[in-house]
Amino acid sequence: MAVVAWLVLQLFVVQVFTVRAASMLPTLEPGDQVLVTRPTIDREVQRGDVVVVDVRGTFLGDRPDTGPLAGSVLAPAPDNVFVVKRAVAGPGDRIACCSDDGRLLLNGEPLDEPYLSSTVAPSEEQFDVVVPEGRWWLLGDNRPVSEDSRSHLGSPGGGTVSTEVIVGRVVRAAG
């Protein structure tokens, strides 16, 4: 019974992932374990949340689908299928780089990003995107090394990802 309860918890409520890349420094380091809650469990994703995203068919293009249980204890997924990023702009938002003082503009206003290292520019790439309904603009906190929405401007969705591929919100991290 305990095993069944644990499997249900893993599949529908919370899941643990390991951060594999340096794209979220200084917030998260490679090797950190993150606890992720499903969007319907506590609240929907909001701007500023750190999220885990299944990037098959979005950032990964046409790589084969490993099934709806991928990443769970029942069907481990390849390391690059799930990424950790920050939800910077949501449905209907306009996100652009950059203001005169070098900050991102969210709906025409400079975006305060206290999670960025003081030595990191918000973006080296110029962009101006209106996020479609049901989609999100995601960025890593370590912008110089992060493959994120900016890297996929020419892809279907214009660099945005569907709300449906957001596995959940990071609620706890441990190194």
Question: How do the helices and strands line up, and which of them pair or pack?
Answer:
Elements: H1 2-12, E1 14-18, E2 33-37, E3 50-54, E4 82-89, E5 94-97, E6 104-106, E7 109-110, E8 127-130, E9 135-139, E10 161-162, E11 166-174
Antiparallel strand pairs: 1-2, 2-11, 3-4, 3-11, 4-9, 5-6, 5-8, 6-7, 9-10
Explain what this protein looks like in three dimensions.
By secondary structure, the chain is mainly β. The chain has a single domain, classed as Umud Fragment, subunit A (Ribbon). It has one helix and eleven strands, in the order αβββββββββββ. It has one helix at 2-12; strands spanning 14-18, 33-37, 50-54, 82-89, 94-97, 104-106, 109-110, 127-130, 135-139, 161-162, 166-174. It has a seven-stranded antiparallel β-sheet with strand order 1-2-11-3-4-9-10. Strands 7-6-5-8 form a four-stranded antiparallel β-sheet, with no helix packed on it. A hairpin with a 6-residue loop joins strand 5 and strand 6. The protein starts with a helix and ends with a strand.
List keywords for this structure.
single chain, 175 residues, mainly beta, Umud Fragment, subunit A, 7-stranded antiparallel β-sheet, 4-stranded antiparallel β-sheet, globular
CATH superfamily caption = Umud Fragment, subunit A
Distance between the termini: 30 Å
Report the sheet-strand fraction.
25-35%
Assigned CATH class: Mainly Beta
Give me the Rg, rounded.
16 Å
CATH fold-level topology: Umud Fragment, subunit A
CATH architecture: Ribbon
Question: How would you sum up this structure in a few lines?
Answer:
The chain is mainly beta and 175 residues long.
